[in-house]
Amino acid sequence: ASAGRPVDDALLDELEEALLSADLGPELAAELRDRLGQRLRGEAVGGPDQVLGVLREEILALLPPRVPETRPTAPPRVTLVVGVNGSGKTTTAGKLAALWGREGRKVVVAAADTFRAAAVEQMAIWAERSGAEVVRSQPGADPAAVAFDAARAARARHADELLVDTAGRLHNKKPLMDELAKIARVIAKEIPGAPHETLLVLDGTTGRNAVIQAREFTRVAPVSGLVLTKLDGTARGGVAVAIGRELGIPVRYVGVGEAADDLLLFEAEEYVAGLLA
Amino acid sequence: MDAALREIRLALLEADVSFKVVRDFLARVREKALGADVIQSLTPGQQVIRVVRDELVGLLGGGAATRPLAISSRPPSVYMLCGLQGSGKTTTIGKLGRWLKKSGRHPLVAPVDLQRPAAVLQAVQVARGAGLAVYEHDGTGSPVERAREAVRHARQKGFDVVLLDTAGRLHVDEELMDELAALRAAVEPAEILYVADAMTGQDAVRSAEAFKARVPLTGVILTKLDGDARGGAALSVAAITGVPVRFAGIGEKPEAIEVFDPERMAGRILG
Ligand SMILES: Nc1nc2c(ncn2[C@@H]2O[C@H](COP(=O)(O)OP(=O)(O)OP(=O)(O)O)[C@@H](O)[C@H]2O)c(=O)[nH]1
Ligand SMILES: Nc1nc2c(ncn2[C@@H]2O[C@H](COP(=O)(O)OP(=O)(O)OP(=O)(O)O)[C@@H](O)[C@H]2O)c(=O)[nH]1
Ligand SMILES: [Mg+2]
Ligand SMILES: [Mg+2]
User: Fold this and answer.
1) Ligand 3 center to residue B133 CA distance, Å?
2) CB-based contact (8 Å) between A130 and chain B?
3) Ligand 1 test: best mutation among A120, A122, A123, A229, most atoms within 8 Å of CB?
4) What is the pLDDT of residues B186-206, one digit of tens each?
5) Does ligand 2 lie within 6 Å of residue B166's CB atom?
6) Of A182, A49, A215, A13, which is closest to residue B19 (Cα–Cα)?
7) What is the pLDDT of residues A52-78, one digit of tens each?
């Protein structure tokens, strides 16, 4: 687009493609294109910045409002980390343990993926890096039992935070989703009001399936926030806009690498600017 | 005809096919449908569907998936798995190894991800779980050194395949992409298999193209097809890179792999 270019179909096409490329999905891309057309059609605009500015405004309006994280009246605060296979849950839990450790909070980690090869060892290494205590069990143990033991330990040690890492699971596998519901139930029994945060970890490269993931996971363990990982690549994570709009779930954090401090607090303006970069 | 094409466009975009691939694909379909022999019993819309199906199957590799895994003139044949973080490489190594063993080969798993916490341990456990031999080491040194060592070990002990499990990496990470090229130069793989997650969206083409620019990919393995993602990434990658999808990952256990079926995939993408 160049300065003084009219807002015509060609420009609107270009913008719609940019939105598609950012994984906003065809429905939302078409809707935003129409909105933009309604607001600006026929006008000669001052330049591409003006059109992009209006588009950014429109997208920002679709995101859920910033809501503070749940803080229980008594510690520990419990955060349950869930999501499909390979999305970055264990790494994200490790980064959160590091972040809270840096803030001087006492962290307990539940290595409740008792299924996958070396999952407990992977979580334990991360916990060790930040000085968090890890609660673990035997391979094949009941993950709900690990979560229960960790909740007990977190209370006994007067921990500020309990992080529960779970196994990756595809949402179309009922037994696995039932297992997750049980983990959440068992945590709630031991610590009333818990889990206070349930973070759905989404691989930033995921397409439309992310919306289905959000719908299905929130059915068994009400998701309070999203983590978009691997945004240090070329994916933009536009799926979060559709999820925010349909389910009202906000993004809490963004993963931008594999090291402990590669976790950013979600900033809506920056995220939207990134979608259109 | 246009109504049918619009519907197909929406279906393909909802299935995560790259929007550029959708555009070119529909243009070709339109051309073919207009030029096709008119079948009296089909409406223009039905004609379009028929052409779409045939085109999809053709692009998804036609019969290329059934081509057997290559065998090097000098054993062992090295099969190098690569791809983005978390796509399923380590798990797939166990599946491929078991599949090869069942067909009479003697594979050795070589874990060369030295950066992810407990990655070597995971590969060792996956290999053991699948009844496979694995080249164990302490996870130090460099991936290139360990890869060379594993190949030497395989040659000495009479293994005819080495399955190289590499670290997940971003296509925009220059250092790690250089390392991948160095690995390839060091062990001259007979197959370089790009492992991609079936739920990948528009980014699928960007990453696959970038990997192909650095190492000559000989195949794609699409994982997590036991989920409900439509898997349009398969079409995007095949159409843009010309690299055929060889295998489909359909679960977490070592048995959960099958030869890629383009007919079934075409149906799945169209929803
Ligand atoms: N580049 C990049 N890689 C990441 C990020 N987050 C996680 N990863 C990598 O993604 C891969 C998978 O991460 P895990 O933490 O094992 O994912 P998971 O969801 O726990 O996986 P499962 O437990 O097997 O379902 C690892 O190689 C991580 O280092 C990120 O923000 N950026
Ligand atoms: N349901 C399902 N899960 C799979 C499939 N393939 C791999 N997984 C799971 O996906 C997650 C990631 O698999 P890994 O093998 O660790 O992936 P990776 O590519 O080696 O990850 P990095 O080494 O960190 O890049 C694990 O939870 C696997 O069990 C599949 O076909 N179906
Ligand atoms: Mg994990
Ligand atoms: Mg791996």
Assistant:
1) 25
2) no
3) A229
4) 999 999 999 999 999 999 999
5) no
6) A13
7) 999 999 999 999 998 888 889 999 999
Q: How many CB atoms lie within 10 A of CB B109?
A: 27
Cβ–Cβ under 8 Å, residues A238 and A213:
no
A66 touches chain B (CB under 8 A): no
Q: What is the 3-state secondary structure (H, E, C) of chain B?
A: CHHHHHHHHHHHHHCCCCHHHHHHHHHHHHHHHHHCCCCCCCCHHHHHHHHHHHHHHHHCCCCHHHCCCCCCCCCCEEEEEECCCCCCHHHHHHHHHHHHHHCCCCEEEEECCCCCCCHHHHHHHHHHHCCCEECCCCCCCCHHHHHHHHHHHHHHHCCCEEEEECCCCCCCCHHHHHHHHHHHHHHCCCEEEEEEECCECCHHHHHHHHHHHHCCCCEEEEECCCCCCCCCHHHHHHHHHCCCEEEEECCCCCCCEEECCHHHHHHHHHC
Q: Is A217 on the interface with B (CB under 8 A)?
A: no
Q: Which residue has the tokens 């339109």?
A: B30
